[in-house]
Amino acid sequence: MLEATPLTDGWILRHPDSAAEALSAVVPGCVHTDLLAAGLIPDPFLGRNETEVAWVGRREWTYETELPAGPSGHEQTDLVFDGLDTAAEIRLDGRLLGRTRNMHRSYRFDVTGAGGPLSVRFASAYAEAEAVRGRTGERPAAYAEPYQYLRKMACSFGWDWGPTLVTAGIWRPVRLERWSTARLARVRPLVTVRGGTGVVELHVEVERTRVEAALTLQARVGDVRVRGEVTGTRGVVRLEVPDAALWWPRGYGEQALYEVELTLLHGSAPLDVWRRRVGFRTVVLDTSADAHGTGFTLVVNGERLFARGVNWIPDDVFPSRTTRERYRRRLRQAAGAGVDLVRVWGGGIYESEDFYDACDELGLMVWQDFPFACAAYPEEQPLRGEVEAEARENVVRLMPHPSLVLWNGNNENLWGFRDWGWEGRLAGDSWGEGYYLGVLPRVVAESDPTRPYTGGSPWSGSWAHHPNDPAHGTHHSWEVWNRRDYAEYRSEVPRFVAEFGWQAPPAYATLRRALPGEELAVDSPGMLHHQKAEDGNGKLERGLARHFAVPEGDFDRWHYLTQVNQARAVAAGIEHWRSHWPVCAGTVVWQLNDCWPVTSWSAIDGDGREKPLYHELRRLYADRLLTLQVRDGEPVLAAVNQSARPWTAVVELRRMSVEGEVLGSSRAELAAGAREVGVVRVPAELAPAGAKEFLVADADGLRALHFPVADREVPYPSPDFEVAVAPGSVTVTARTLVRDLLLQADRLGPEVRADRGLVTLLPGERVTIGVEGWETPDADAARAVLYCLEPAR
Known about the structure:
By secondary structure, this protein is an alpha+beta fold. It is built from 15 helices and 44 strands.
């Protein structure tokens, strides 16, 4: 039987040009984390330390250990690296085993009978990128760093939300595998559903030490067992599960998972075993043309879905630190916000099995980008062969996961070619189109025909339309935020919004930890360093000024208002687009998470704290949503029903003054079929007139609000409310209109959390906010960290 022995202990790290003593190294890990553990570099997440450690990415580094020699009782011994970051030379006892240049692949070397000193020497990623650029020629990109010239996590070179911390190291597990006769080299599971029967077809490739040995395959799924033969190095076994329970996205059904076990045998002796969990489901991407353009609708098990999505970036700029528990915590947060789709963005990585396992269990559909982002990528060697090899390996690796519903060729590169001035600069040189419209769809079609592929995001489906045409395929909405106000979201109905978002700073406690000793100010040195977007603070201020009086010199007020504005912006988009289902079939917010503490578009900051946007997503992505929209100049109420049952209710409509007076009211019948949107006309006499009036709609415990003017024009009353505390809760009772009340719980202590974000109370209403981790409840302390909108000064 194949024996696997992890090689985690005994590693040391050396700088080849340094006479300094070697450091103890953690494998899996990276150079930065080892230097941090040794106290040789400051924490790059704190203050402006990022600049102090830039030298690390420009050096060569060598990992060393001792590989045991001697008989193993097996015919072959392989040294297996699941991930090397990135350009490495591997030697055993001075003998060259091989060279690598791809972070996204695994590597296997025959070390049968050998032992002695093992070294893995990493070249600087900069040096490797420059060498490739010298061979292929210059290519344009959105950023100056040379990330497009090697197969490495692009965002380790920095992004508009991430630090420049260029890593090197043995970032995924390494082990010795000892085996005899044969081993399972590749198992490609095609999982389908046909007439209620779940079908698992296992396409197997084996590696042999003995060509003449007769090999058989034994497979099982639940109580179903089959056997098959291996002919040469290949074999196929097919299992059928009658009346298979289906895997559904969260909110549509259960996440039924089946364990598949495949055993390779020689006679009755097992040689190797492959185990995975699979789920039976069908997935289709409907891109058919209609009266509105070209659709982009995911259809799972025959059910057409509005995708409630978030974009995912690596959760740590040092990916080896992202543990199974951390993946689950972050993805549970996503599910808790009503998310049902997570897009793994193309400037990051193919995530570990732990990520996809959690998505399988939580019912989170995964849209997986191939790792290409915001650049023209050369199609010459040595990159072309690496791209195809990595794609084939990762498509097969991720095939068992039912959560994976879509492969996407790249992030913004087709758009960049057309709109960012690349075409003229390239002058006919390759730039990646051959990958996105040639190599990658071919690999997916050959290896995994059970899943759809799309050429890019954004992408209209062909060059017949602009790549970012909102009427065709996927759309990225970045004119809003960069140049336009978020009210402009309501000016169009894209078929699928794959990226949109608005910035806000992280939680206060996160800033205090990340900027120790600094007096916080909008333009303090640390705040500016932890703002990576071009003119980010300028865009924040201009976006704020359209809606609020920008506070001068009041950081706490600025911090609160920018977080309100972020939640308002995303709400404006999602409410509008969800109300236009099925023309619009999905929104994917940029972004769920952060890889360090930073002002960004995230809903969960770099320390894992939930911004007000996170809590707003829980409302926006709920199965049922009430939203007041203006159509043809008049307010209407849209009842978005993504549940499986029809929604009927009586809606109460009220026109109110900001002083709390009811100026008019009516009741209406609300009706929305299952997975449908119902629209209720608001009587003309209830339309708010002027800055002092607003509209309220209530039904089934849900509420929608409509203020006809920007907040800076609304004469809000001075907020007046009572505060009461009890163990685990804070209750606020309003005497006046209290708009966008927020308990900033982390100001009570770094570990304190609140269970809700922004809430608006009418006079006489109350809200109870759950609070965790607060050991000494105090009403005055709670009042001090309660923020809400106030009259313009």
